[in-house]
């Protein structure tokens, strides 16, 4: 009985062993990598499929014993591999991807090989994401360490500090709102939009249908959202959920906590002057007529499921990262990106993994259409960024290598592990970052 193939597979997967297939007894050395995982090196690779398996059983036994004695890295995401995991140079956009690990105080521009091309060091933890502006500056949200947390989960997705930084890290513009959260869209010249909290009255909270009973914020409160437009530090426009969103049309989903309704996680100023917004806890994407504040268009939970990152494409269609959490008529959960025709509300393009369950993030996530027609997706909870070419094939895969715990105890109570999560990722062609050359 030949046990070579399964043994080699096991050893290769768990100890990253390299074996000299040309000798009976290949010398091996044990080393420790940066993440603390012990590995073994020798002079010849054994691939994951066990294609070279004429190594002696005594050598395999020796290596297997060493791998069992070694302490495995208990972080599953990191153990599976970080950095660039795959690259099709012919179809991937040649450019740089911006990532902002949520547990860190750093923002990185990386090339297709995962090499850091530029880095910003922030005074506070990242408060969701960062984006490059047309003027070359960095727009970033940070977590205000002194801001209150009206409910426990706000410790994770609250922001509060919005800055525009030049490439050297100098502050060009800043705005603060302790109840700001999730998205901030910088339009440039000190002009931007962001989402904030506003408590409902007791009567409004009691009239809100849906959600898990008894899951209100402390003192029985329910918080709604506002969208605020600020220019040069002054509020110039505001839209309030409590005044404009009908709770009967947009009820909380039955499995969602009642502390936050409708949980706006994306804001996008559209070409026609109206505002596109994504609302997670009601599974809806809406267009707000800016002049009246009325909802003039929306997708509901028959199309999207706790989606994120709704944005308008140059052709007028809407690109959405559809998380797929508690999707109707599905027995398991999977994520996808969809492009929706605004006029018909029909899905005209979509991508999901060939094995649907292989690409899924229950929260966060982003989708960006690139200059070459490819689409960049962020599987946020697991720090994975993938690029999909126009044929629907994955042409770049990168896993964020920066792991750490949330610095706030309250956030660690929810997410105690070392995380590499990213709220979003954005990719740019070299000509969009002339100062980097």
UniProtKB/TrEMBL annotation:
Organism: Saitozyma podzolica
Protein name from the UniProt record: PQQ enzyme repeat protein
One Pfam family of this chain: Arylsulfotran_2
SUPFAM superfamilies: Quinoprotein alcohol dehydrogenase-like
PANTHER family: ASST-DOMAIN-CONTAINING PROTEIN, PQQ ENZYME REPEAT PROTEIN-RELATED
Domain of life: Eukaryota
């Amino acid at each position: 009985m030949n046990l070579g193939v399964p043994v080699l597979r096991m050893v290769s997967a768990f100890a990253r062993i390299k074996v000299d297939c040309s000798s009976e007894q290949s010398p091996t050395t044990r080393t420790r990598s940066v993440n603390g995982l012990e590995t073994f090196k020798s002079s010849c690779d054994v691939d994951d499929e066990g294609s070279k398996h004429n190594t002696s059983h005594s050598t395999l036994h020796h290596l297997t014993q060493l791998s069992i004695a070694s302490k495995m890295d208990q972080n599953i995401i990191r153990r599976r591999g970080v950095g660039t995991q795959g690259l099709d140079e012919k179809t991937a956009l040649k450019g740089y991807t911006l990532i902002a690990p949520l547990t860190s105080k750093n923002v990185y521009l990386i090339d297709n090989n995962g090499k850091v091309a530029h880095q910003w060091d922030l005074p506070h933890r990242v408060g969701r994401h960062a984006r490059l502006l047309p003027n070359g500056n960095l727009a970033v949200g940070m977590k205000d360490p002194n801001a209150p947390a009206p409910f426990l989960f706000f410790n994770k997705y609250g922001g509060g500090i919005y800055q525009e930084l030049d490439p050297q890290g100098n502050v060009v513009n800043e705005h603060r709102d302790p109840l700001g959260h999730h998205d901030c869209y910088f339009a440039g010249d000190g002009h931007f939009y962001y989402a904030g909290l506003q408590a409902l009255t007791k009567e409004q909270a009691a009239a809100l249908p849906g959600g898990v009973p008894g899951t209100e914020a402390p003192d029985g409160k329910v918080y709604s959202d506002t969208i605020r437009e600020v220019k040069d530090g002054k509020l110039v426009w505001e839209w309030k959920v409590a005044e404009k969103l009908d709770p009967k049309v947009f009820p909380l989903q039955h499995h969602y906590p009642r502390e936050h309704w409708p949980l706006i996680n994306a804001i996008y100023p559209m070409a026609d002057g109206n505002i596109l917004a994504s609302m997670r806890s009601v599974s809806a994407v809406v267009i707000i007529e800016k002049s009246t504040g009325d909802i003039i268009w929306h997708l509901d939970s028959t199309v999207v499921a706790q989606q994120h990152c709704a944005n308008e494409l140059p052709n007028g269609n809407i690109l959405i990262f559809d998380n797929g959490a508690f999707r109707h008529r599905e027995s398991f959960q999977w994520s996808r990106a969809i492009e929706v025709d605004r006029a018909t509300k029909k899905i005209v393009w979509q991508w999901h993994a060939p094995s649907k369950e292989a690409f899924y993030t229950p929260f966060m996530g982003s989708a960006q259409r690139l200059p070459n027609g490819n689409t960049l997706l962020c599987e946020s909870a697991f720090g994975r960024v993938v690029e999909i070419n126009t044929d629907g094939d994955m042409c770049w895969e990168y896993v964020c290598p920066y792991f750490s715990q949330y610095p706030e105890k309250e956030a660690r109570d929810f997410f105690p592990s070392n995380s590499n999560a990213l709220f979003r990722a954005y990719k740019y062609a070299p000509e969009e970052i002339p100062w980097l050359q």
